[in-house]
Structure formats: structure tokens, C-alpha cells
Amino acid sequence: MPVGTGEVAIINVLSQNGVAQEDTLVFKAKAPQGSTFNWTVNGKGTTATDSIFKFVSTDVGEHIIAVTASTNNKKVSSQTSVTVYGKYKYGTFILNEGNMTTENGSLIFISPKGVITDSAYFKANGTQLGNVAQDLFISNNKIYIISQNGKKNAVGDAFSNDGLLVVANAETLKKVAAYNDELAALSWPTHVAVLNEENVIIRDNNGLYRFNPITKALTFIKGSRSAAKLTLAVSNNKIFAAAGSKVYVVEPNKDTLTYALDMKGSVSGVVRASDGNIWVSTTGSPAKISKINFRDYSLIKANDIITGSVSAGFGATPGITAKGDTLYFSGAGTKIYRHVFSMGATEFMADAKTVVQNANIVYNNIAVHPVTGEVYLNTMKAYGRDYLTNNISVFNFNNKDILSANYKDYTKFPAGIFFTESFN
């Protein structure tokens, strides 16, 4: 709607009150014919002199856009406000492990408009993530990124980077804190999840730890040995972690497990459902997808999976991914299946090999966008130097042309796909 007084009004052409850093908003001044225009941002003049003003900013926060229209020696002004948020607030992250012996981890970002930024953390800070980056979590406008090796690779070579755990502003990726020596007791940390500022839960070869970034205390959670190398789910301020045939439950400020739920099958994925309950996939005969009540850990319902595989493969990400009542899985392969839980129905959707060139090896598992329903898949041509020939493929199974986007040669052993909306 136009805003303004007298004979000039500002029309926000795109009807957006907020915009990401570096993105453009278009404003149009409505004024008497023959007017000349003077636009300002936060009281400072701009070079714009016609009725259209394109606003772009890298400064986050509120900005006041004002225009003065001059006609027949008469001046009338109007203003409106717009909020600029961080470039990385909304979108998709893909975390690269990097090459264990030669390079650090890195972060790829894909904006909602499909614009890709590689090495996003480095571009924001001029420093690198740790060696073999493994997992990330977003909480309270901070992004937590864990790496397996930190400043020394697996064979003991020193690397220049920000260490084992990096904390950055989730909108701008500007580093807030970094921890390395404080976490030296960890053995190959792989996953991180956050309950609050003083309860950062980290999984390593020994189990689960509670790290307090304020006191720097690192506490092993008793009973958590054998926690699997799989993504941790968070719901109702609790951590749900795969551990063999069990799902462990961890609560803040507790140094022992709250609960260990026996799933009677090898757990291949633990994922928060949109209603706060927990999806659990188990392999075996038969494989199952179960829905668990997040309050009392009771079984709500379990469906047998006899078509396709819910295995996580060798990956460190869940064998299932969910949007609402619909789950996808590919058994760490290129054949994607969809399961509608309420109907108990599974169908084959596509084989990525038939639509994506060089989609030979799936590196970590597929992930479905919690808003758009698009399914993301990372593949590469082969090991050796052929890992540099790779694809980030985006599938929209509602379209006839199912491949809605494909980004070539950006990944370097991708550890996982992370949607900012998943952390809301």
C-alpha cells in the first residue's frame, strides 16, 4: 500500500518489509506529474533522482527510506521503514568436510532465490572452519559448527583454522566464539545440538558430552556410551540420540541419561516431527518407521517398510527425512522413496542417476525442505580426485520436470544438508 502525506507517497513495489543483506527492494514515489525526486536513506542523500529507488544494503537493522518530491516550488516528503536481516538468516546450508589430509571444512549457502555462496564462513570471517567439519546446529540466532579434528588433522598435521567448535552469528556468520583446547578431551567429535546457552551437547567416539561455553566445563553424560554417529534430534528441550537399538534422551543440566528407549531394531535415524514428536527409523526384518511421543516416549504408531531402504549407509545423517506426515529415504543410494505415514504407503519417486550426470556416489543422506517439500541430494562422481565432480540436486516431485535445481562442483565431501527453517 502507498504510504505518505500530502501529494507524495512511497509504494513498496515488492510489498516486503524485510530484505536480506545485498538483496534489492524497489520503491516507487507517487507524486504529481513533472516532479523531481530526492531520495534519502537514514537521512543521508542518495544518487537516485527519478521516481524509482532501488534499495540495497549490507547493514542489518531498521532503515528509514524517505523521498522529497519537488514541483512548482513546492516540496512534499514521505518516508517508510524497512528491516535488513542477515544474508544467511533464511536458506540452506551444506557443510563440507573438506579433504582430511589437505584442507579444512567449509560452508555452502543457497538463498531462497537459489543464489549459491561457497566458502560462506571464510567470506564472513577471513578464517577457516576446523578440519573435517561434521555437523551444525542453529539456536538463539547462533550457529554452532563442530569439526572432527579441529586444528590437527587425523595424522597430526597442524592446520590453520578456528578449531573444533565454532560459534557464529546465524544471520551474518560473523564468528562469536571458537573452542579448541577446551574440547581436547573429545575423541573425533561428530555431532552437536544445543538446548540453551549453557547446554551444548556434543557426540564423539565415547558418547555424549555436555559443554558449557560460559564456564568451559565439559561433562560426560553417564550412560551415553555407544551413542551413534548420527544427527541428534531436539524437541521439547530434550536431545534424542540414536544408540544401536536404543534412542537416548538427554535433558539440560543433567549428567546422566534421562531415558533409553529400546526400539528392538538397529536405529538408522532420529528426526523431530513437525508436531514435536519423534520419527525413528530402524533397519532389520522388517524395517520400520516409528513415531514416538516426545513426552512419555511411548510408541504412537509403527509402519513396516518393505519397499526401499531406510539405512543411513556409512553416512552420519539420518536414514529418513520428514516434512509433515511425509517421509523420504534412499538407503544412502540414488533411488528416492516416499512414505506417507498416515496411509502406510510407500512409493518409488526417482533414480537420481537417470536425471543427474555423474550421480554415482551418494555422500550422506537426502533431506527434505520443511517448507517447500523439495528434496536435496548430494552426489559425486567417484573417490580420488573425482570427488571434485559433484552435484547438489534439488527435486520437486510435484512437477513434471522433477529436477528443479542442480548446482555443480561446489561440494567437498558434504557432511549434511541443513535448512534454517528446521531450527525454528
Walk me through the structure.
The chain is mostly beta strands and 424 residues long. It has one helix and 38 strands. The chain has one helix at 120-125; strands spanning 3-5, 8-12, 18-20, 24-30, 36-41, 44-45, 52-56, 61-71, 74-85, 92-96, 106-110, 116-117, 131-139, 142-150, 165-169, 175-179, 191-196, 199-204, 207-211, 218-220, 233-235, 238-243, 246-250, 259-262, 266-272, 278-283, 287-292, 299-305, 321-323, 326-329, 335-340, 345-351, 361-362, 367-368, 375-380, 390-395, 403-408, 414-419. The strands form nine sheets. Strands 3-9-8-5-6 form a five-stranded mixed beta sheet, with no helix packed on it. Strands 33, 34, 35, 36 and 37 form a five-stranded antiparallel beta sheet that branches. Strands 1-2-4-7 form a four-stranded antiparallel beta sheet, with no helix packed on it. A hairpin with a 5-residue loop joins strand 25 (266-272) and strand 26. The radius of gyration is 24 Å and the shape is globular. Mean pLDDT is 95; it is low at 1-5.
